[in-house]
Amino acid sequence: MKPLTSTDKKRIINALNEQFGISKLPYLIIQFGKEKLRVYSGNLLKEELYHLNNELRIENIGLYFAKWENDGIRLTLDGVQLLKNQISKNILELEQTEVGKY
Length: 102
Description:
- It is a single chain.
- By secondary structure, the chain is an alpha+beta fold.
- It has helices at residues 6-20, 46-56, 77-83, 96-99, and strands at residues 2-3, 28-32, 36-40, 63-69, 72-75.
- The chain has one domain (2-99).
- The chain is built from four helices and five strands.
- A five-stranded antiparallel sheet has the order 1-2-3-4-5, sandwiched between helices.
């Protein structure tokens, strides 16, 4: 578990903006492993999360919303639902006849 710095968060927001038009992410972003990104909006501070992780080994916290991939960030379904009001790029609209095929 690694709560991201403001520099890392800006890098993620820039990637989200470039891919999806997302410009705000009012949550603490926590990275698990090399690629899983989770957002946290609870009452614990970043320092308290570090302390808890050192003492207890936190496996999961927050909502898994995205994954770093070679070609950018892939939002999870939960991430899409969380950020749906901000998404303005790379939207695929299906005709009614295509919905069944999808």
